[in-house]
What does this fold into?
Amino acid sequence: MKNEMKTGCSGTVYLVGAGPGDEGLITVRGRKLIEEADVIIYDHLANPVLLEYAKKECEKIYAGKENRHHTMRQEEINSLLVQKAKQCKTVVRLKGGDVYVFGRGGEEGIYLNEQGIPFEVVPGVSSAIAGPAYAGIPITHRGISRGFQVITAHNQNGQPADIDFAALAKSQDTCVFLMGLTKLGELAAGLIQAGKSPSCPAAVISNATLWNQRTCTGTLETIEHQVRESSLMPPALIVVGDVVNLRPALNFFERMPYFGKRYLVTKVGEEISFLTNVLREQGAYVTEVQTGEIKFFSDAVKPELLSWADWIVLTSRHGVEAFFASAKAQKIDVRTLSNKKFAVVGRKTAETLEEHDIYADLIPMSFDSESLRKGLEGAVKPEEHILYGIPKGGRNKEISILREQYSVQELCLYENRECCLQKKLQEYDGAFFTCASSVTRLLGKLKEEELEPFRTGRTEAISIGKHTTWELERFGVLKIRQALSSTYEELLMAISP
It folds into this structure.
């Protein structure tokens, strides 16, 4: 086994705070360790999206401890950390929020120290600070609150904590209660009985920093009833103090364009999609489904073909990367390309070409194969030869039209291989399809009941172009939005609020 340690040696356990929920709020150090980890042991409050940054061979172990439902006891988790540290180099213990803020990270660190296992702590952004901030509530504010106190509503045995309500009631500090939703009434009553004004502002924030965040505001006297009426669910935190009144001015997150929306994004390749990054940054919940993987053909580009060609046509960023990967594998000197002209299908393909220090001679106004063919007809001289890059199995009728006027040679550069679906899909507001093959590969694998949201219009499809739209229609998708041009930017414009 690649990551197995020698007998008597030990790897390092990294106690990593995963942050409050939004995967973007993990620290740079935390993400780097996830990428390097041989084993990740994670809690239920750690966003599962973070696991997508792990390498393929990384072992992932769920050790969640939800309210009254423990997958593993703490003693079992401690033993597991030691066991894995003796087998692997890098063990990440991924814990929601911050490692030491009611996370039992100290207990794990002490146990590792007793067992002689090296460990490090990577602090995380605590929900006690980030949760209120994402609800538009600063836990301190000049002239209103000079400090804050963070309190847990339960002790280590799950019983109500022994809270000094008198001290809290006298203080002007903001109070943040974690894990206290089921004790909300008791907490409010305790503060009022200790002298806190019944009209003191209070807020409850459910699923803080996530797409389904919900916030309920009121006063100590009304908040329990309001939360019950709103049907808020844990995990939730409670904020008590005058800073709650600042929410109308500072509530940035729940105003984001796609806040509360759920989207499915299909993709080819393992890297996180540009669409996914933009949608998540603007408040949406996104599930990615990889429908294909790219395999380059190292022997595709041959010196004799390059000598023959005057024009080289590349129709995707994968085609560009495959072309240069093959040229390198064949030890073809870049100076061989000095007298070649390059045509690409669109701006993203041109940008990928520029990464290899070559600027396209032809980019059509509309980013599709028909426009590319028309552009070539206006630029290529009758005596010039065209080397046209294609994926394996690709059918392009525009090549046949070009052959009526020019000498054209197809160059099979890569294969877009189908991937097995590994995720159970939920229902979404919309699903993005960036090629016709993604439609076939995804919808063709779904059961009738899973297709039903598409066929009734509850889930709309966002299509990158006409070929993709035709395939969606073939599967009976009722609501389809098509991008005005075949770019990711136009795909996003199609759903622009």
Notes: DSSP finds 18 helices and 21 strands in the chain. Residues 4 and 87 are 5 Å apart (CA to CA). The two ends are 51 Å apart (CA to CA).
